[in-house]
Amino acid sequence: MANTIKKQVVLIVDDNPVTRMLMTQALTSTELQIVEAASGEEAIVQFTLYKPDITLLDVSMPGMNGFECCARLRALPKGVECAIVMVTALDDVEDIEQAFESGATDFITKPLKWPLFKHRVRYILKANRTLQELSLNKNKLAKAQSIANLVYWEWDFESEFLECSSDMFDMLGFPKEMNLTVRSALKKIHPEDRTKLIIALKQAIYEKQSYDIEYRIIRSDGSVLFVNERTDISFEYGQWRIVGTLHDITSRKQSEQEITYYAYYDTLTDLPNRRLFIEQLETAIASAKRHQVQFALMFLDLDRFKYINDTYGHHIGDEVLCQSAQRIRECVRDSDLVAKANYDTDNRVARLAGDEFTVLLDDISRVEQVAEIANRLIGAFSSPFFISEKHLHISISVGITLYPNDGHNVETLLQHADVAMYHAKEKGRNNYQFFSESMDNYLKLRLEMENDLRAALSDDQFEVYYQPQYDAESMAIVGLEALLRWRHPTKGLLTPGYFIEIAESTGLILSIGNWVLMQACCQVRQWQQESGCAYRIAVNLSASQFTQSYLLETVRKTLKESGLLPETLELEITETAMLKDTAETIPLLFSLKKLGVRLAIDDFGTGYSSLSYLKNFPIDTLKIDRTFVEEIVTNSKDCAIAQTIVQLADNLQLCTIAEGVETSEQADVLRKLGCAEFQGFYFSHPLPVSQLSLLLKH
Ligand SMILES: Nc1nc2c(ncn2[C@@H]2O[C@H](COP(=O)(O)O[C@H]3[C@@H](O)[C@H](n4cnc5c(=O)[nH]c(N)nc54)O[C@@H]3COP(=O)(O)O)[C@@H](O)[C@H]2O)c(=O)[nH]1
Prior knowledge:
Structural class: alpha/beta
CATH superfamily of the largest domain: EAL domain
Number of strands: 26
Bound molecules: ligand LFPHGCPZ
Number of domains: 4
Helix content: 40-55%
Distance between the termini: 130 Å
Largest sheet: 8 strands, mixed, barrel
CATH architecture of the largest domain: Alpha-Beta Barrel
CATH class of the largest domain: Alpha Beta
Strand content: 15-25%
Radius of gyration: 49 Å
Number of helices: 27
């Protein structure tokens, strides 16, 4: 198939048919298609139909003249792309000016020079096509640049003015008609990045070095744009020029910032996370080492946070953490010390994990300054948190280490701050402690015990000892108290004083307590069967066992499995544990009572001693605490207290048992006061099963 070349269309507009004919004759060729119009009105119709590439337009025509026609043709589709050449008989400057004002591309004056006419038209057609292609390419380039968020600029070092793509005005927030200069563009650069760009520009001008840098632009509306600027330096037409592109990389930067944020910040509290904190601590160590100064690291832990989380749910827990972060931040921000050290204070507070926070205090000259801030932090938690209509009281325990005294590296400093914080917890919470070597030793020992204790149950290292309880009148053994012992592989036989608190704090007490209960019930059931006596067995319950929801089920199951009669089991609970949360303990005590077991208040008289609870609680026995028995013979006040307890028990029809009876004199006084039962070294120490079996036999 032959290649058909598209003909270019020439529209000849002239009211004179002879001129039209002559023009047509002059232009007729295989490459051109000629269309004619005898008036301006007809020209518009023909233009719409043929969309010519060139229009030769006579100026003086009856009706619509050439100028008006030109303006109307420009407004038609493809009107802008068409070359419109005014053909005028008048070689008049005014006409020529008016021709350009109405949108003409060029003009030809009559009389036409026919030998040149054809070439002139062809030249205009060619020039117009080149212009069209240029404009098309420009548009394509502009579109590609806009898709790529790219703007372009050019600067010859000689002048102030910048030549640039129109998008650059939008990017900088300048009006399009403004004369953009290097100086005005520089004013838009973020002050922190300006020097960097000026240095790069100077190197470009003086050393002819192109550059590729990133910086920020502050737009007129205040928004910040991140751009990447790449340049090329060339020497053209005897002039040095720098050509550059600005690539809008704001969204990439924002994504990078987001990624950094998630990697280095805690999204709940907006504080630096453990990772960033470790980096900051490393920097602080390096800087303190260089300047030979000391700094403090504070380790903060919220007291009772687990309780808040478990009781009120995670959403309240999260809010507590957010408000805590805020309180810590404000406390540190207010501090004179921090102001002096010129901190980015928000970054000096971090959330390590859960309810653990840290504070870094640089350049400490006096330890008192740190103590002052610690006090301030503790004080900041003295007012309750108000969350979801609830007032929640939360305190903090703070551990403090000092660089370089307490450690030279991140690991040691953190570990020691943690040790100090634990010490603050042990000291009753809501306080701060500085780290010390002895504290470290103590806690290491404790940690060792904790690990040993975890293995003790599975390794069968526990034993139950039994201490007899005697009837004050007949002196017969009526009951036994089960007392836990730990046969430690290296430390020997340990009494609960060495480990019960660790068992409590680690939660191990629950499984150990259940084991003691089962052990004691089975053993006493055996002694009951062997002797035919209904010995009672007293078992101590820790506060955490007592508040455990499945205690009732555990006791029921133990009684069933051991076959022990419920009325021969007495559970000893301290006054403090019993009164901790009466809304929960009263129903539990009644449920236990319903099982048929006996309930005793241990260490009676040493706790809150709110006597009103005695009438509400289904108690069977009051155990007079050893501290009143100790000096009962010599101290009339102790004697009076013991007497009051016995009388109170009598009136409420409760049984009394005195613990810690070490002499016959003590037993005599207690007997005279009417105490029903005795327990103590005077009668028998707690004994292992084998020895107690012998004692019971005899
Ligand atoms: N939750 C659990 N707590 C338990 C368990 N076993 C014991 N304990 C608690 O430990 C406390 C200390 O017990 P222990 O070292 O065994 O001391 C008991 C007796 O040895 C001691 N005692 C008895 N008579 C005398 C005496 O004449 N003088 C004297 N100085 N001490 C004496 O008293 C302890 C018994 O006290 P109490 O329980 O208050 O009757 C112990 O108090 C328990 O709370 C356990 O299995 N679970």
